[in-house]
Structures are given as structure tokens and as C-alpha cells.
Write a structure and sequence with these properties.
By secondary structure, the protein is α/β, with parallel strands linked by helices. It has three domains: about 5-50; about 50-60 and about 375-505, Immunoglobulin-like, CATH 2.60.40; about 70-370, Glycosidases (TIM Barrel). Helix content is about 30%, strand content about 25%. The chain contains 13 helices and 21 strands. Residues about 1-50 have low confidence and may be disordered.
């Protein structure tokens, strides 16, 4: 009788011959005593090998994806603050999930003389992060409590009306700070020319994530209680004009409206400005939370609810150090709770980044598991062997473990690579857009099952029979990966290896 080793070897030959189509010939040359065992092994192998099924685990990695992520405050109104203190070579690569760099800067710094622009103030630091595949965002302000003229003084000299004030007290003829009358025709005309000049550089720029509508109110936050004290009813009319101006100048760029335009504590009741913003595709920015201790850590989570199903909500927390000193930060759990309640896609790093990261790393990691969208491949099945030119079925189950939809959307692609990492087939399921994956409470993301038919062509492109590696990705209809997935086995191009497939000759 043959040994176990000999039997296993013989059985292996049978399986190999079955795959090669010479099963009967191989059996004829075997001892009868092995036939039953060999046939059983063939049956088991065929059942096990007919389909490859993988259920990959979430890697736990922080993701950098379009329309979501941590946002580093570079200029915080004052040009000598926070990110602006970093070395030119320091792009804070150690902050997990950092996707965007934010520049909030007074108009006066960017157009010190009419028609003479200082775009290098934005472009120079922006290029550091753009070179790393990150995006930028802007706010141009017209009122600051630390400089006399956030709106350039030449605008006043050109005839724009305004109000001198003392910060915290309101209008004061002896005050050294100046607010424009925010609907003055001269002011609006000069502002529009500036915004059009900015739009010529940044509107539709793929490296620009969003632009705040920040040309009204103190620090661009939409309130004037401590400065020129515009009545709310009048403010509603003015802000709408500023929204319309931004929509006209930046038709191809996502715009954001600051929550305080309707009053810093107006959590309930009608919201005509925010409803108008939402109807125009403008998103909401809460600016800022964790100013006061619980339970008044934020006011406007309810305001965010009409926005987040369609547009990414932006949340900015109070200066971390100041918030901590007031007892508003606590153990960080309030920030995590805010991400959940706002369904936030962006969250600001509003402090010295290394200090904040060192003190809040557990909070940062917890937020990264929920901030924005997080596409999880729960299961994927495909035939172990397919015939070139013949359709085959792929079945998948996906979930979104984040708090927000995948706003850019995308399509699942399978890419087959040879042993030299050459791509021999790119197969896209165009019938399923991941934009449709709904977020859910922690650990309760709805799972969507999907079945599709794909075909590896035998003629164009020419594909040789053989065994190839299977990679999954999510991106454009042409198969270009765009969305980073929480999967191991990445190829550095947002494709992730799942297993192998054998292509058979027709």
C-alpha cells in the first residue's frame, strides 16, 4: 500500500490533471486503492476552490480622503500664529488623518494697495501641502479686533462708509478700529473685484477643498455684537448679499457659511439664512465649539442636520489651550460627541499641532474612526477560475462606518496584476455608487450587498491565461483609485490586494 506521502502526492497530481483537463488519463495510471481518496480530494478541492471569499478586517488606519479630514489652521486671522510658525519643511505628516490646510487672513494683507495682490501669502505655504497630496481652504475677513483696518484702508479712502468702534463696547467715534458698512456700495464693489481676482486663481482649483463666506462680521464669523453692532434683521439682508456675491464669484468651489450669522445662540426656530444657504448648495461651518463647558459646549448641532446628508459639515473647536483652561475641553469626549451630532466631515486643528496631538492622541484616534466617511469592505467573492471572454459574477458587501456620506462618490474596481505588478485588467462595477452607502451609529453601519457581472477580455486588451493577483479599489468610472480604504495590502496607489484568480483560455 502506498504511504500517506505517496497518496497525497498522487492526489495532488489528480487535482492538477483535473484542472488541466487530463483527469481520466491520470486516474488510469493510479493504483485502485487511491482512486476513492483522490476523487474525494478532487470533490473537496472543487467545492473549496470554485469561489474565493474574503472578509478583510478594518485596518484601523486614519484615512486621508476628499471632502473629509483634519484641517490644520495655518493662519488663524493673525499671520504669526499656529501653522505659520512651522519650519518650511514641516508639513505635520505625523498628524493622522490630516487632509487640509486652512488659511484665514484679512483682506488687507492680500490687497494692500488696490489692484496689487500678495497671493504669495497663500500660495507659498499652500504648495508645501499640495506637494504632499493635501488640499487647502480659505477665509478672507473684513473685520478684526486686533488691527484697525482688516478691510484695506484704501477702501475707506475710496469713499466706503464705515464705523469706528471700541472692541466689546460697540460704535465709538474715538475708537481705533474700523468696520465697513457691510452693504455700502463702494465697499461691495471693491470687495467683488477682490473676490473675482481670487476666483481667477482658486475657483474650480482641484486643490481647494472649500472657501468660507467670511466677509461679514468679526473674524469673518458673521456677528458684530462687539464691533459695529448691526441689527440682526439688517444683518440677514446683508449676509444674503455676501452669499450671492460668493456664489457668483466661485460657482465651481464648495462654499461654507458660518453658523453665527443667525445669532450665536439661535439653536431653535426658523433659520432663513441657513435654509437659503442649503438651497444653494452652500455647506455649514460651526465656528466654534467647546468655548463653554458642558452642557453649553455647542449650540448648532441641530442647525447642521439639513446640511450633512448633502454637503460635508465643517466643525472648528475653540483654541485648544483656551478651551482646556476654561474647563470646556474636559477629557475630549465632548469633541467626539460633537463629531457624532454634527455628522462632521472636517475638524479643525486649532492650536499648536504637536502640543495638541501629544495631549489628545486618544481623542484624535477615536475621532479618526468616525470623522467623515469610512468605507469598509465586509466581504468579496469571485470565482477562483474564469474563462477569458466569459462573464463571471462578483458579490460584495460594503458599509460606511463614518458619520457622513461619501460625498465625492465612487465606483468599485477590481484590478488584476501579474507577478511584475503590471495591470492586465481593470474591471469597474458602474452600477453601484458608494455615495449611496448610509452612515449609522457607532458599530451599526448598514451593510449593502452587491452582485455584478464582469468580463476579462480575450482580445482587447490581450490577456494571457494564467494566475493573477486581485486588487480592489474605489474611485472614478475609469478605474482610477480615489478613495483610501481601511485595508491592509495596499500597493501605494489606493489599490488593495485580496487574493488570486486564474484565467483560463477560451
Amino acid at each position: 500500500m502506498a504511504s500517506g506521502h505517496q497518496g497525497a502526492a498522487s492526489a495532488a497530481r489528480v487535482i492538477e490533471s483535473w484542472l488541466e483537463g487530463s483527469f481520466e488519463q491520470e486516474l488510469a495510471g493510479m493504483k485502485p486503492i487511491l482512486w476513492a481518496g483522490a476523487i474525494l480530494l478532487v470533490a473537496q478541492a472543487s467545492m473549496a476552490a470554485d469561489t474565493v471569499t474574503v472578509s478583510p478586517e478594518d485596518s484601523g488606519a486614519a484615512l486621508v480622503n476628499p471632502d473629509m479630514g483634519w484641517t490644520l489652521m495655518f493662519y488663524s486671522n493673525v499671520p504669526q500664529n499656529y501653522g505659520s510658525k512651522l519650519e518650511p519643511s514641516d508639513t505635520v505628516d505625523d498628524w493622522p488623518g490630516l487632509s487640509t490646510v486652512y488659511f484665514r487672513i484679512p483682506w488687507a494683507f492680500l490687497e494692500p494697495e488696490e489692484g496689487r495682490f500678495n497671493w504669495a501669502l497663500l500660495d507659498t505655504p499652500a504648495q508645501r501641502w499640495i506637494a504632499k497630496g493635501k488640499r487647502v481652504a480659505f477665509r478672507f475677513t473684513c473685520s478684526e479686533n486686533w488691527m484697525p483696518f482688516a478691510t484695506p484702508e484704501w477702501v475707506k479712502k475710496a469713499g466706503a462708509q464705515g464705523v469706528f468702534y471700541t472692541w466689546g463696547k460697540g460704535p465709538d467715534p474715538e475708537g481705533r478700529l474700523w468696520d465697513p458698512v457691510f452693504d455700502d456700495p463702494v465697499f461691495l464693489a471693491k470687495l467683488k473685484k477682490f473676490l473675482l481676482a481670487a476666483a481667477a486663481r482658486y475657483d474650480g482649483n482641484p486643490d481647494v477643498a472649500f472657501i468660507d463666506i467670511g466677509t461679514y462680521g468679526m473674524w469673518g464669523e458673521g456677528h458684530t455684537g462687539g464691533s459695529s453692532q448691526v441689527p440682526q434683521e439688517k444683518a440677514n439682508v446683508i449676509v444674503r448679499r455676501h452669499m450671492d456675491m460668493h456664489l457668483e464669484c466661485f460657482p465651481r468651489t464648495r462654499l461654507a457659511l458660518i453658523d453665527d450669522v443667525t445669532g450665536p445662540e439661535s439653536a431653535d426656530g426658523p433659520q432663513p439664512l441657513t435654509e437659503y444657504a442649503r438651497s444653494k448648495g452652500i455647506t455649514l461651518r460651526d465656528d466654534s465649539i467647546c468655548v463653554q463647558p458642558p452642557p453649553r459646549s455647542w449650540f448648532h448641532a441641530k442647525m447642521a442636520q439639513p446640511f450633512w446628508p448633502e454637503t460635508p459639515v465643517i466643525v472648528e473647536h475653540e483654541h485648544y489651550g483656551a478651551s482646556k483652561a476654561r474647563g470646556a475641553w474636559g477629557d475630549g469626549s465632548w469633541l467626539i460627541k460633537a463629531v457624532e451630532e454634527y455628522h462632521a466631515s472636517y475638524l479643525t486643528i486649532h492650536w499648536w499641532p504637536r502640543e495638541m496631538l501629544a495631549e489628545t492622541r486618544a481623542t484624535v484616534d477615536a475621532i479618526n474612526r468616525r470623522l467623515g466617511y469610512r468605507l469598509q469592505l465586509r466581504r468579496l467573492s469571485w470565482p477562483a477560475r474564469v474563462t477569458l471572454g466569459q462573464p463571471f459574477t462578483v458579490e460584495a458587501a460594503w458599509a460606511n462606518a463614518g458619520v457622513a456620506p461619501c460625498y465625492p462618490g465612487g465606483f468599485v474596481a477590481l484590478t488584476l496584476k501579474d507577478d511584475k505588478a503590471g495591470m492586465v485588467a481593470v474591471l469597474v462595477d458602474e452600477g453601484f455608487n458608494v455615495r449611496d452607502l448610509k452612515p449609522g451609529p457607532p458599530g451599526q453601519a448598514p451593510v449593502v450587498s452587491r452582485s455584478c457581472k464582469l468580463t476579462v477580455g480575450a482580445i482587447a486588451p490581450a490577456t494571457a491565461p494564467g494566475t493573477y493577483q486581485v486588487f480592489v479599489s474605489v474611485g472614478r468610472r475609469d478605474g482610477t483609485p480615489v478613495i483610501e480604504l481601511p485595508l491592509a495590502g495596499g500597493d501605494g496607489q489606493r489599490r488593495y490586494r485580496l487574493g488570486d484568480i486564474q484565467l483560463l483560455a477560451p
